[in-house]
Amino acid sequence: MKTRLLSALLALTLAPAAHAAELIGYASMPADTFAEGPASGQYDGGVRAATPRFPSQPVQGFSGVQFGPNGTFLFLPDNGFGAKANSADYLLRVYRMNATANTAAGGAGTLTPASFISLRDPDRKVPFVLVNESTPERLLTGADFDVESLVAAPDGTLWIGDEFGPYLLHFDATGKLLEAPYATPNFETFATLSGKAPIVIGHRGSSGTRPEHTLAAYQAAIDAGADFVEPDLVVTRDGVLIARHEPILASVDANGKVTEATTDVADHPEFKDRLTTKTLDGVTVRGYFAEDFTLAELRTLRAKERLPQLRGTAFDGQFTVPTLEDIITLVKDVEARTGRKIGIYPETKHPTYFLTEGKHADGTPINVNLGQKIVDTLVKTGFTDPNRVFIQSFETANLRELATKILPAAGLKVPLVQLINGGGAPYDFTASGDKRTYADLVTPDGLKGIAAYAQGAGPNKALLFTADKNTLKPTAFVRDAHAAGLQVHPWTVRAEPAYLPAAYAGDVEAEFRDLIRAGVDGYFTDFPAIGTRVRAQYTTPEVRSPQNPALLAAGTSPGAPSAANLNRSKGYEGLALSADKTRLIALLEGTVAGDPDGTLRLNTFDLKTRTFTGLAGRYRLENPAHAIGDLTAVNDHEYLVIERDEASGSDAKFKKIYKIDLNQRDAGGNVQKTELVDLLNLRDPRGLAPSTQAGVFSFPFVTIEDVLVLDQNTILVANDNNYPGTGGRGKDVKDDTEVLWIKLDAPLTVAPGVGR
Questions:
Q1: Signal peptide position in this chain (predicted)?
Q2: CA terminus-to-terminus distance, the chain
């Protein structure tokens, strides 16, 4: 009994699934199939060898398929030899192929080229230099475009999806390019309060690359593309606002050792009598304090790196301590020279201390209202544009006073931002005996309370995410703050691993992306070059691969608007004509920067207006490491998609075809998916394919890139063999091009005009 049960279980395990799709036709084309044309394959990484590898043009494995005339198929090879730099001598073509399937009734099982259409640009529609630029026909090559998807339009023209741009290309029936390539617009939207891109705030300038709160740090932030620079403000003995993170110019322990310093004050023997101990917001601190020095004395000091162990000391001793007026002058000078309007984001540091609690070293009260000082300086310098100033504070009372008294008296409407720490309480609460803490400010009611006097909230970035195993998930903070009408400007993103949450595994760009996805209205960063570069991936008007010609021409300097926002050559791997023949659905193979990992955009292109009109949805991969192979229409809202892993042969684990429904989308815009075919587990009871084993056929190629609906019960699938690639049918065996006729388990709802 046990033996029979074991045998039954084993048979069940080894047998194909009861409802697996069935192979009903098979054909192949030898890998070494060539067509007429010039010798090819002589480039390796852009270096031209003396002798080409191939005497003519290989008929590559295919990346797109459509119906051709008189029972033929149109197959589109890709760009040639695997990379732009390798493919300058591979001519782009569409091949008309005769396919004679081996079926239950017999058949040759062959795929053979009948003729080809040469893709070319004799009318000079392409706006960049081609490999064959100076020739009359300007034949297109794999170094010009990476063609990966094909549509035969009702008017007889051909639409081809490219990956280098990514572009849509439109050819007539003879292969002549009819129009300039259509670039891909970036339909990114932002979940900010305004719907606009977040601002980048240079935290203490570009403090990750220059000593903080120096004119050099502010200039570096501006050069990096920051929208605002942030000076923390304290006051000198003679009442001038200067930029320091704390009033302490250098902290000194009981043994006389400097424990932290932003200036070289401890190296000046003439100021040794200024060393003192004070109580700052209830904490005893020993050191040198800005309020005990005149501005003239401070001008003799030089800035030092506050974090020398992390950021080095290369710039120590080079820069002075700037005043708020110095910073405004710098910003105005930048505007005069470049036309750029940079904002200033001052913070009142320890306003209760400076107004009521703090004393000079001689015991006299400081008695300075920082908010009033800032407003007076803004008015004096004429820097009062509310679009270019935020005033921020960790305390609340000074912001309320600014909102209700100081700003109205000056006739200003400068926005205010309540800073929120991850723990503790605003010091003005503590000083007045108010038992509330920052935790009370981050509740929905607390945020509404902030909105009564401020226009923004500046939370510790830790308040925006909660850890879930190895990932971070957004909290309700941004949603609740936006509901209260508050902008959200979290702090501070730093590039050093010591400051990055472990979930990012050292990837600082991932942290910026998560903040943007969370809908923040801006972010403070010590590295504004990185912050602007990541934002540029969202704000560039186009989706661009690294191989985009504009990118290659312009370069990729930090913050450049032409920065690639599509990883690798991951453009239009899928292109389909809608069932009503009015639009194209173009599926990117890669995730656009900022989109959730593993989601791919389905762009809609209107054939009448010749414009991209928006997203038809997003396709979510089963695994972000997977790729898609092709897209084809079933009816007005259903399409087929090939999804595959990047492995071949025995390593291949995932090669499937899904049916997607554009009318069924989740909250993130991801379309509904239904598994249709497992290409690693096809029934082949008749042994139509030579590789079939025990009635099971497997299609384990690294790239499977062609699918076409033949009728409601049958689809056609083919591979791209990546000539002269190996690995699908054997480690050292060149992969042939194989074509499959597959009978589905259940019929598709095929629209009229779809299929043959």
A1: 1-20
A2: 53
Note if 203 is an active site residue.
yes
Q: What is the pLDDT of residue 555?
A: 54
pLDDT tens per residue, range 288-325:
999 999 999 999 999 999 999 999 999 999 999 999 99
Which one of the listed residues 213, 245, 350, 482 is annotated catalytic? 245
CA–CA gap between residue 456 and residue 205 (Å, rounded):
20
- What pTM, to 2 d.p., does this model score? 0.78
Domain check: are 368 and 408 in the same one? yes
Q: Is 494 found in the same domain as 566?
A: no
Catalytic-role residue among 203, 350, 482, 489: 203
Q: Which residue has the tokens 């691969």?
A: 545
Q: How far is CA 642 from CA 90, 195, 722, 736, 741, in A?
A: 26, 34, 17, 19, 15
- Round the CA-based radius of gyration of the chain to a whole number and report it: 33
Q: Which of 490, 510, 539 is the last residue of a domain?
A: 539
In a domain, 499, yes or no: yes
Are 447 and 441 in contact, with CB atoms under 8 Å apart?
yes
Question: Helix, strand, coil proportions of the chain in percent (round to 5)?
Answer: 20, 35, 45
Instruction: Using alpha carbons, select from 94, 128, 180 the residue that is nearest to residue 170.
Output: 180
Q: Is 245 a catalytic residue?
A: yes
Q: What is the 3-state secondary structure (H, E, C) of 45-109?
A: CCEECCCCCECCEECCCEEEEEECHHHCEEEEECCCCCCHHHCCCCECEEEEEEEECEECCECCC
Look at residue 554 and tell me if it is in a domain.
yes
| 162 DSSP β-pair partners | 147
Two structure tokens written together for 448: 């509404």
DSSP 591: P
Regarding whether 566 and 615 lie in a shared domain, the answer is yes
Predicted confidence at residue 554, as pLDDT, reads: 63
Copy the structure tokens of residue 675: 């598994």
Q: Cα–Cα distance between 381 and 113 in angstroms, integer?
A: 76
- Average pLDDT over every residue of 340-353: 98
pLDDT tens-place string over residues 544-576: 999 999 888 765 444 444 578 898 889 999 999
* Rounded CA separation 431/570 (Å): 58
Q: What is the CATH number of the domain that holds 338?
A: 3.20.20.190
In-domain check, residue 752: no
The domain boundary, picked from 539, 570, 604, lies at 539
pLDDT tens column, 698-726: 999 999 999 999 999 999 999 999 999 99
**Residue numbers of the domain that contains 658:** 21-186+550-723+739-743
What is the side-by-side strand order in the sheet with 522-525?
343-344, 228-230, 199-203, 522-525
Structurally, how many domains does the chain consist of?
Answer: 2
Task: Give me 311's structure tokens.
Answer: 């950021």
Quick one: 428 and 478 in the same domain? Answer: yes
Give the torsion through C-alpha atoms of 678, 680, 681, 682, to 10 deg: 80
Give residue 536's pLDDT: 87
Residue that is written with structure tokens 């192949």 in the block: 28
**Cα separation, 358 vs 368, whole angstroms:** 9
Instruction: Say how many C-beta atoms besides its own lie within 10 A of residue 281's C-beta.
Output: 18
Rounded distance between C-alpha atoms, residue 384 and residue 393, angstroms: 18
Which two three-digit tokens encode residue 447? Answer: 């945020």
Give 100: exposed, middle or buried? Use CB within 10 Å, 0-12, 13-18, 19+.
middle
493 and 622 in a single domain? The answer is no
Are the C-beta atoms of residues 659 and 673 closer than 8 Å to each other? yes
Q: Are residues 612 and 486 in the same domain?
A: no
Cα 611 from Cα 582, distance rounded (Å): 12
Query: Does residue 192 lie within any of the structural domains?
Result: no
Q: What is the CATH number of the domain that holds 671?
A: 2.115.10
Tokens of 455: 């226009």
User: Based on the domain organization, do 389 and 426 belong to the same domain?
Assistant: yes
Specify which residues 619 forms β-bridges with: 600
Q: Which residue, among 278, 206, 208, 215, has the nearest Cα to 246 in the 3D structure?
A: 278
